[in-house]
Amino acid sequence: METPVDPLLHADTLVGASPKEGLSRFFGFNQFKGDQEAIVTSMMEGRDVFVIMPTGGGKSLCYQLPALIQEGTAIVVSPLIALMKNQVDAIRGHSDDHDIAHFLNSSLSKNEMVQVKEAVATGKTKLLYVAPESLNKKENADFLRSVRLSFFAIDEAHCISEWGHDFRPEYRRLREIIDSIGKFPTIALTATATPKVQHDIQKNLGILGADVYKASFNRPNLFYEVRPKEDALRQVVQHALENKGRSGIIYCLSRKKVEEIANTLQVNGVKAAAYHAGMDAAQRSRRQDQFLMQDVDVIVATIAFGMGIDKPDVRFVIHYDMPKSLEAYYQETGRAGRDGGEGHCIAFYGLQDMEKMEKFLSGKPIAEREIGMQLLQEVSGYAETPTSRRQYILHYFGEHFEATSGPGWDMDDNARNPPESFEGKDIVLHLLKLVAATGGRHRGTFLCDVLMNRETQETSTYAGEKVTEFMGSGADMAEPDDWPGIIRQITLAGLLSKKTEEFGVLSLTDEGTAFMAKPQSFTLYKPKPMRVKATRETVSSAALDQPLFDMLQTLRKEEADRLELPPFVVFSDVSLEEMATHYPCNEDELLIINGVGSSKVRKFGAPFIALIKEYVEEEGIDRPGDTVVRSVAGRNASKVTIIQKLDRRLSLEDISAAQKCSVDELLGMIEGIVASGTKVGLDYILEEYLDEESIEELWDCFMESEEGSLQEVLEEMGDAYSEEEIRLVRIKFMSEVAN
């Protein structure tokens, strides 16, 4: 598709060129993708345009190209500073003219703002990216009135709608601000918009008569999977290790969880970094660049990450927490596989998380709460559906999809592993009759309450509307928890229509009316058990392989004798037990074993790995899929703080006071740090407690010890040394000999 690009271009060499010329000379492509050419033509003819195009579909080119080949500067309204920088860098990458694109936002100094405005005023800048807040400032609006503009582009236009997943109140004033600057064509672009959101955007921007271009939302290369939220952290680590060296994004709803998962991944040998709004702009920008440049493989982030990130080779997107809407889910998963290659989208779903989000909404104004609850119900519906997840998503966005034959139909867990099916004609007919009897004016929750004879204010109020004969009638037809899923399946099949703008009211469609007149066979599916009340502690279900453990102990003794070291220095019994449970067959897997650091792997690892590999092959062992996840406890902020304070040669008393713990507890922490494979410097402390001769005596005692335990040396030395002194020497011994 790409053709050789001419030497880097100045902006003024493109003005007046045809769209195809500009596409070839500036971007290096010889043909447009999808509706791009029609969109650019509409822009060149001065018409308003509305574009709904999935992530990776080439939205940016739809306004960048018209800006480059027209007179004047195009104003691009964008919600995030990181997104603006990314877009500006991308445009500048095609040109030798630094001024071809600029951004105007709060990250600029006064001097930088002056330089940007000079470039715009002189006509050098073809694309000026602005935040809505910057556009709202009087001095900026006055400046834009004084220069030649070509059009306004509203990127991430879903931010306008209260029904969108990332509503920004400042976006609602854009039409008013643009009109105050002048009369210009407007192009609005988004990757996600239901019919309701689309109408809301067009109405707010005053472009109801715009040319609308809507690409398919289907991404056939993405595999969708929802898992119960059990052992989620272990599964995340396992997936990252299985895809080591490949790019991935993990989304969480809280900053605390972002930091925890990033730390855990790092401890387990994954090149991971955290990203959230609590970091300063420079730090976020640095993390983003590390991800783009592949210095970091996995970014763990809140939803603040990823908008407009032009990284085509993201191979997996994991939602550790379910997002607050299907729009958010679709856009975030859309960051995978933008190059057309594989993209694995995993979401962890548990009732506890949904209840948390519902509780959060309870404090919101009633209108916002109603919208939020409806969006959450759609998320639950997607997670719990036993049918095609792809069909569910596309149906939500108003797109028809054949669940058994459409592009990518088998790229989800339900398609690959279908749930149990059963004949549902009578159930469907019964439900449709209930909807007809109640006039198509109620939501699914009301219908379920009627069918299960649950008395609520709503069922009591509408008892006279032919509801009485249906009260409790569904109890013998399906389990109480199955009815919401059944209703979703019937809606997906097109027999019912859900009115999003009326908070999910269900009404009969023509197909539903036809089914009532002539009932026919209908396949329903039993819901999968997805509702997990709470996450449980991650524990290994694998059993210790006693013969292998015995062999590892023998090898440890041989290696210890060869190296003239006590066996406990090589590997502890706990480490050997984990090896005999999880069969680590390479250095990366051995690093995950508790008590094994990189120095231990280098010093002692090779013969143990060789023994385990040979044992696994000879015994034909199918290694367990569960990954041993090294706890982050030993590598958290406290550990870093303690190491830093030791490096600064602070006393144990000062460090323990700063850590708000006793000296005894502090020594326990330091022992844990050393056990995890990290060296520490304690010589300056030991010098205060013991002379060189005493240190050597205790050192020799540990060298000759069988187990290396504190108790063993205490008994041998009697009252010659205190427990604290012996612990300090043991820490020094393990730090220098074992690590």
Strand content: 5-15%
Q: Taking all residues together, what is the mean pLDDT?
A: 83
Q: What CATH first level of the largest domain would be assigned?
A: Alpha Beta
Terminal CA distance reads 53 Å
Overall, the morphology is globular
CATH superfamily of the largest domain: P-loop containing nucleotide triphosphate hydrolases
DSSP E strands, number: 17
* Known CATH architecture of the largest domain: 3-Layer(aba) Sandwich
Task: Return the domain count.
Answer: 5
Number of helices: 34
Low-confidence stretches: 1-11, 531-541
Structural class: alpha/beta
CATH topology tier name of the largest domain? Rossmann fold
Explained architecture:
The structure is a single chain. The chain is of the alpha/beta class. The protein folds into 5 domains: 11-214, P-loop containing nucleotide triphosphate hydrolases (Rossmann fold), CATH 3.40.50.300; 222-416, Rossmann fold (3-Layer(aba) Sandwich); 425-521, Orthogonal Bundle (Arc Repressor Mutant, subunit A); 546-619, DNA polymerase, domain 1, CATH 1.10.150; 633-738, ATP-dependent DNA helicase RecQ (Arc Repressor Mutant, subunit A, Orthogonal Bundle). The chain is 47% helix and 11% strand. The protein contains 34 helices and 17 strands. The strands form 4 sheets. It has a 7-stranded parallel β-sheet, sandwiched between helices. A 6-stranded parallel β-sheet has the order 8-13-12-9-11-10, with helices on both faces. The radius of gyration is 32 Å and the shape is globular.
